[in-house]
Amino acid sequence: MNRKTLVLPAAVGLLAPVLAACGGSDGGSGGGDAIVVGTTDRFTASKDAPAPLDPAFAYDVGTWNILRQTTQTLMIQPRGDGEPVPEAAEKCGFTDTGNERYACTLRDGLKFANGDAITAEDVKYSIERALSIKADSQVYGLLSTVDTVETQGDREVIFHLNTADATFPYKLSTPVAGIVNKDVYAKDKLREGFELDGSGPYTMKAEVDGDVMTKAVFTKNPEYKGSLKVNNEKVEVASFEDADAMGAALDKGDIDVMTRAMTPEQIRKLSTSTDSEVDLIEVAGLEIRYLGFNTDAPTVKNKAVRQAMAQLIDRSALVSEVYGSQAEPLYSMVPASVTGHSNSFFNKYGDPSVAKAKAQLEDAGIETPVKLTMHYTTDHYGAATKQEFEVLQKQLNDSGLFDVAIEGQPWDKFRPAELKGEYDVFGMGWFPDFPDADSFTAPFLDKDNTLNSPYTNTEIRNTLIPESRREADRLSAADSLNRIQDITAIDVPLIPLWQGKQYVAARDDITGTAYLLNSSSTLQVWELGRGVSG
């Protein structure tokens, strides 16, 4: 039979009571065979990215989901989202009224999986290491408000911030702030390959084929001390080349669960099936897709070109043709369910209009059709990405104002090329570092941004982002956040396209699936257990 558990989209911070009322996990067993989770995330060590699992480098949802099982952080996002809670820490909090001094006390007796004691010095070492390495992935930008790290004794660590940052507890819950062992993680260089050591709920062994990790085997860590209840002894995360292969493995019973990224067709079939031993669970999510620009590139350097694209793209048609009910049009980089959202792009451009786009280009003296190439990744965001870009290409070209080509590359080539500025226009997805509007603005617009974008707006960087971070009450940050979104709609360094739901498909003897993914697409495999099928 098919049982579809629906978790309706909710405002961040309100999701926890909704899930609690639904009952969440079914209970589950801590024993039995390993639970196998399928994913289409690919884990590749390459010349450009030789250390994909180092916390000081990793900065995509797939690698973060490996690290979250093994590398413990001071804070963690709780079940059902909400404010972060202590994890490796016993307690944490701001000790001043200006949100510039943040202190944590470690849990007593905390150890790495190898038995080595963890002290405040290890935390200091880990944070300073990420900041000093400054990896090309730009993940260290999450720690940009850290000025100095101080220790007092073995268990007290104090972060002195260079500016007020009410979002700092969230940042301490991300893998870049994970605690690493200085005996195996060098201070000045990344740890290459697929080995991991930490103090999280699991230890990890990688199965590798050449330069690709095909499976991560997680075994319950007997030394673990933290806030999480681990409901199983072993979980394996298996990587598949595509969603069809992953789906076939689920049908055959080779895997128990599949997560991202299922195809829209797979989700449609599972949602309407009446004769299946597989359950489809819809989980509230904050995934977005957008177009990014190298604003220094000759083809799109004039913002009138970018504005014309924003004027022409029909998000509703795009979503309808490719994703159906699994996504919604997005008119800001901040999703509709997040505090601080505004429909800035709709307010600026309204409905798609060829006439308005033509006038924008003519007023700027731009010759048409504008010839450019849009790049996308073939294997990172799901099989529907190619179709999505074919629809975008047709929308732009049918206007007569553009002559657009599209080109796809696998992620291990696409991402380094994007960071080097080799693409004028490129498609990206975003799963927030934490569920706050800051995580949908600063990572793209601040200094050391995740795109390595040349776009700079001094009002955003010097005034609005710091202003928004001063507000512990995120509703009070709305004016600053709305202004950021309005400027983004005018300058168009990015074009938001859609926000999506997320799904888990699982065999019906697997419990805890309602909590396997949180809204930031964090994989929480400790929630899974085995029950009784039927």
UniProtKB/TrEMBL annotation:
Keyword Heme: no
PROSITE patterns: PROKAR_LIPOPROTEIN
Record PANTHER family: PERIPLASMIC BINDING COMPONENT OF ABC TRANSPORTER, PERIPLASMIC OLIGOPEPTIDE-BINDING PROTEIN-RELATED
GO MF annotations, alphabetized: peptide transmembrane transporter activity
Protein name, per record: ABC transporter substrate-binding protein
Subcellular location: Cell envelope
Family as reported in the entry's similarity comment: Belongs to the bacterial solute-binding protein 5 family.
Record key words, sorted: Signal, Transport
Annotated signal peptide: 1-20
Domain (Solute-binding protein family) ranges: 83-450
Any one GO BP annotation for this protein: peptide transport
A Gene Ontology term for the protein's cellular component: cell envelope
Higher taxonomy: Bacteria, Bacillati, Actinomycetota, Actinomycetes, Kitasatosporales
Record flagged with keyword Signal: yes
